[in-house]
């Protein structure tokens, strides 16, 4: 049994919540002219489906960008002495914390939380999908990457992808799940507690029921039954890493993940020598910094179509280029502070790639200094909208992450033949679970995100604000973010960015579009404390620690 409880917020302060609340009030006025019954229906729909009711154009028409910065959300930073877990599902973060209390490892805690996600976050992740896990072992001062992402079936037939007229939710879009095999591989190598101790807390949740969060309610759709085989997969991979100017080491997930792109963005921004003195105070600095960030994003997404599954394509050259300080320097020389350019200027070569959407993230720091950053997905919200007859778990539609000539993806993104579907191949992913260590190889930051291609840009902006703009963790997470993926040639920004800045960015040639649909989950170690905060952009998250 699942207990459904909805609670109204006591007050709304988050920028995207303010936008939604204001939009509701505008529509209330219109609806009052019609009928009381229609009012009730519309207001109920607005509360739980705000993005569905109002287009970005409607929101910008009724709710203009603010003239001055808005207050931050009511979400607080939490401070811990020994260990912590943050997740986009609070009950799962609590389970992870409880595992650590029982002397479980960081990997144990992440597995316990991931299993919980299969229930509490079933619209975003679960055993019917797959994950990327980045692990830091403090005693070895070494980072491991586990690829438990879905793979294309060995008997796949590409001519079947449009049979039912719905390529995204079609059953043939289900790839071979890697989640369970990933749990086993991670536990075999780094687990401490017995398996049943990791599973039992989620069994208890299923038996007792839980409160459905707003995000899960918003995503609810009907699921049909299918049958499935058990050909699962998970492999260990070498992490990619770069050294930043102050000696910090940034580790992230290699292709088919997007860690190389996040690393490239950080390399480019690191060379601009942003400091706490450039705190976005002066208007000229504000515009220049944002413009440089946006231009860097464009160069990053121009390179993304060159990445793919290394078991099928050689990505060594493009990865080395993205990690190169010399290439970052070359890109900085190409960034012009006074103008934007057409896509070809940034090196764009291809025109069809796909990105995951239904995603969940967990960050863990254990008392012994170990850390885990893991991002799990079933691709679209509720995946293929199919469940297994035997298990009832929701299956992924990860095949939609491949590049198809006939299929435009959920994010209107670009790609190449490198990411075409092939038997046993893993599709390219935007997931980038990452860990930052200091020059003494101690964990400083564990970070990851949700939101398809915005994962890359959100992680980069959060780290940039923490390292170079003297923000605390709350400021770095809450500050409105920008995003540009080169195709479409549109700058996406979040509500809360002041109108004056938006207008100046338009004057530089950026076409703008306002939308909020990403979040980051971060743990920071600072001065012998662990600081955690969950991103209020996705309701239902939480951070727990010891």
Automatic annotation (TrEMBL):
Pfam families: G_glu_transpept. One of its GO terms (molecular function) is glutathione hydrolase activity. Gene3D superfamilies: 1.10.246.130, 3.60.20.40. Coiled coil: none annotated. One of its GO terms (cellular component) is plasma membrane. One of its GO terms (biological process) is glutathione catabolic process. The active site is at 359 (nucleophile). The chain crosses the membrane at residues 31-49. L-glutamate binds at residues 149, 377-379, 401, 429-430, 452. Keywords: Hemostasis impairing toxin, Membrane, Platelet aggregation activating toxin, Toxin, Transmembrane, Transmembrane helix. This is Glutathione hydrolase 1 proenzyme-like isoform X3. It comes from Diabrotica virgifera virgifera.
């Amino acid at each position: 049994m699942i207990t459904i409880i909805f609670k109204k917020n006591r007050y709304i302060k988050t920028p995207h919540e303010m936008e939604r609340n204001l939009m509701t009030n505008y529509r209330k006025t219109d609806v009052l002219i019609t009928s009381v019954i229609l009012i009730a229906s519309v207001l109920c729909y607005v509360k739980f489906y705000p993005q569905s009711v109002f287009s970005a154009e409607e929101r910008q028409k009724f709710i203009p960008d603010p003239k001055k910065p808005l207050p931050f959300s009511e979400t607080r930073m939490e401070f811990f002495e020994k260990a912590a877990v943050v997740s986009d599902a609070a009950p799962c973060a609590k389970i992870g914390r409880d595992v650590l209390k029982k002397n479980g490892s960081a990997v144990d805690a992440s597995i316990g939380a991931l299993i919980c996600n299969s229930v509490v976050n079933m619209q975003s992740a679960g055993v019917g999908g797959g994950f990327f896990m980045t692990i830091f072992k403090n005693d070895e001062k070494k980072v491991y990457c586990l690829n438990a992402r879905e793979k294309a079936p060995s008997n796949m037939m590409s001519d079947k992808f449009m049979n039912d007229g719905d390529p995204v939710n079609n059953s043939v879009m289900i790839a071979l799940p890697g989640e369970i095999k990933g749990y086993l591989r991670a536990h075999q190598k780094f687990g401490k507690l017995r398996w049943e101790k990791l599973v039992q807390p989620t069994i208890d949740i299923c038996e007792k029921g839980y409160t459905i969060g707003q995000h899960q309610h918003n995503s609810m759709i009907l699921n049909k039954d299918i049958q499935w085989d058990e050909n699962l997969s998970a492999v260990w991979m070498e992490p990619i890493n770069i050294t930043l100017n102050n000696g910090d080491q940034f580790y992230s997930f290699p292709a088919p993940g997007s860690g190389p792109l996040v690393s490239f963005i950080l390399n480019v921004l690191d060379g601009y020598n942003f400091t706490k003195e450039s705190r976005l105070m002066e208007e000229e600095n504000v515009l220049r910094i944002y413009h440089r960030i946006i231009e860097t994003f464009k160069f990053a997404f121009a390179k993304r179509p060159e990445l793919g599954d290394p078991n099928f394509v050689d990505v060594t050259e493009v990865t080395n280029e993205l990690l190169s300080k010399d290439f970052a320097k070359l890109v900085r020389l190409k960034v012009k502070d006074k103008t934007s350019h057409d896509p070809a200027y940034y090196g764009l070569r291809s025109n069809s790639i796909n990105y995951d959407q239904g995603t969940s993230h967990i960050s863990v720091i254990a008392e012994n200094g170990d850390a885990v950053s893991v991002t799990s997905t079933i691709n679209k919200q509720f995946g293929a909208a199919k469940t297994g007859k035997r298990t009832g778990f929701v299956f992924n539609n990860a095949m939609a992450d491949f590049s198809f000539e006939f299929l435009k993806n959920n994010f209107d993104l670009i790609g190449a033949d490198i990411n075409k579907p092939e038997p046993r191949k893993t599709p390219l992913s935007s997931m980038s679970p990452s860990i930052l260590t200091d020059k003494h190889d101690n964990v400083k930051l564990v970070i990851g995100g949700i939101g398809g291609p915005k994962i890359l840009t959100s992680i980069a902006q959060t780290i940039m604000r923490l390292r170079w703009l003297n923000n605390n963790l709350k400021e770095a997470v809450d500050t409105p973010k920008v995003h540009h993926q080169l195709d479409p040639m549109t700058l996406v920004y979040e509500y809360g960015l002041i109108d004056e800045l938006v207008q100046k960015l338009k004057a530089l040639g950026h076409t703008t579009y306002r939308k909020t649909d990403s979040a980051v989950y971060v743990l920071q170690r600072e001065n012998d404390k662990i600081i955690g905060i969950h991103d209020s952009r996705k309701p239902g998250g939480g951070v727990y620690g010891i």
